[in-house]
Amino acid sequence: MDLADRAPGRPWLQLPPLSVFQLLRVFWLLSQLPGPAQVSGAEQRQVFQVLEEQPPGTLVGTIQTRPGFTYRLSESHALFAINSSTGALYTTATIDRESLPSDVINLVVLSSSPTYPTEVRVLVRDLNDNAPVFPDPSIVVTFK
């Protein structure tokens, strides 16, 4: 077929008319074809919480993983480690929230084959580890 022979608005390849069911089946079959792995927005940014003063080895959360990928932190971190095959994020030290500049720790987790960065935020929740001290055993308050 020559370009000049094609009428405007006509498809290059003539297809027989398809029912809605047949079209849906074609779309489903096309969706099953392997393609490049795409990482959605939910996988690119994940948020976890951990309570301060927990022992090393405490599970913070598990990064959403894909089969066949391995995971690593983008840089060495003194407080966290990741299981390269499962994506489980653990503490490697006891975290004291009061000694941190912020209660949010940002990490970047990289996956292999191909490399996709995942932004991970860890919110360190405060534990009431400073009990209040009262000068007197009882206090009398009067409202007027």
UniProtKB/TrEMBL annotation:
GO terms for cellular component: plasma membrane. It is found in: Membrane. The keyword Signal applies. It is a single-pass membrane protein. Its main location: membrane. Keywords: Calcium, Glycoprotein, Membrane, Repeat, Signal, Transmembrane, Transmembrane helix. GO terms for molecular function: calcium ion binding. The keyword Lyase does not apply. Pfam families: Cadherin_FAT4_N. InterPro entries: Cadherin-like_dom, Cadherin-like_sf, Cadherin_CS, Protocadherin/Cadherin-CA. GO terms for biological process: homophilic cell adhesion via plasma membrane adhesion molecules. Residues 1-41 form the signal peptide. Residues 42-134 form the Cadherin domain. This is Protocadherin Fat 4. The lineage of its organism: Eukaryota, Metazoa, Chordata, Craniata, Vertebrata. The gene is FAT4.
